[in-house]
Amino acid sequence: MINRLSLANFGNLELLAKQVVEGFITGLHKSPFHGFSVEFAEHRLYNTGESTKHIDWKLYGRTDKLFTKKYDEETNLRCQILIDCSSSMYFKHKDNPSKVEFAIYAAASLIELLRKQRDAIGLSFFDEELKLHTPAKSSLAHHHFLYQEMEKRILNYIPTQKKQTNVIENLHHIAELCHKRSLVLLFSDLLDDPSNEKNLIEALQHLKHNKHEVIVFHVNDKKIEQDFELPNHPVKIIDMETGEEMKLQPSEYKENYKKSIAIYFDNLKLKFGQQNIDFVAMDINEGIEIILQKYLIKRQKMRI
Known about the structure:
This protein is an alpha/beta fold. The chain has two domains: about 240 residues, 3-Layer(aba) Sandwich (Rossmann fold), CATH 3.40.50.410; about 35 residues, no CATH class. The strands form three sheets. A six-stranded mixed β-sheet has the order 5-4-3-6-7-10, with helices on both faces. It has a two-stranded antiparallel sheet with strand order 1-2. The longest helix has 25 residues. It is globular, with a radius of gyration of 21 Å. It starts with 6 loop residues before the first helix and ends with a helix.
């Protein structure tokens, strides 16, 4: 579970990501996803006279049988990760990670997975404007740079600095900066004025027009932000991006709120599907394995 993981537990982001990916890969080969190439496609029995270069000695130690790793033909891909780092993404409740922490943990885990597949990765952070954009690279030095930049976004957050988001303009900007076909992964809470829906679709279409594949991960705290599970007494709600405050009795608004927000995101999901854009709801209370699986599935399709 992602809410059991934190930099405090692992010391740094790279160690945390390694832990997540090692557990994911272990489960991968015990699941219907075992055919995907992570470091290798599958095992087969070793035949006498073959080279011993690809024998899996760890497996031999567990089974007392010789198996070799059968590798898939590698096709290097580029993956561009886009993370919304506006103030609303720093919302957190109790011991859960914030939404931006969740997105960063997922991004770090993807980097570890990409290392094993020898794919390239780029990273973009944005709020009102584009704060960081790196082209996709696969070098170790580049990976370490990305880890450092991601850790900064977790450790150096200043709550008094209100940052609104402009997903639409930043998507257009990034579409112009990514010149080679890539798999684009957008992490955002998508909390925007519903009247901007058409412009959001057009911005994502810009990426599709430039031959990119797109997955949108809707990062949210479902219990609070969608189910409106708040205390049964008057509360003060603060807009983290503008500082605007509102006092209300949650029970008076809960049902209408739940219906309205469900309609909004269901409609977005439908519109995304019409553009062949994957929409994945990501609750920060859940694990990040689904993100790694979605990446592998899309990567496999891009290789065909």
